[in-house]
Amino acid sequence: MKGMIYRKLKISALMLMLVGVSFATRAQDETGELESREIVIEKVREITLRKANRNFEKIPPRPAENIKAPMTYDFQSFSFQAPQVTTQMRPLKLKQETSRDVHGGYLRLGYGNYSSPLLEAYLNTRKDKNKLLGAYLYHHSSGKGPVDGKNSGSGTTGISLAGSSFSDAIALSGNVGFENRTTHFYGYPEAVPVDRDTLKQAYNIFRLAGAISNAKNSDFAYKLGAGFSFLSDKFDARETEVGLNFGSSYEIDEDSKIALKADYTVITRKDAHIDAKPRSLFVVNPTYNFPAAEDLQLSVGFVVAYENDSIDSKDLHVYPDVRATYPLSPTVDAVAFLTGGIEKVSLQTLSYENLWLAPDIAIFHTNKTLDFGVGINARLGNKVSAHAGLSLSTLKNLYSYVNGFEDQSKFYTVYDKGTTKRTNLYAALSYAQSEQVKFMLRGDFYGYNAGDLDEVYHRPTTKLTANASYNIYQKIILSADLIAQGGMKAYDATQDKTVKLDGAFDLNAKAEYLFSPTFSAFVQLNNITSNKYPLYLHYPVRAFQALAGITWSF
Question: What pLDDT does residue 191 have?
Answer without folding.
Answer: 83
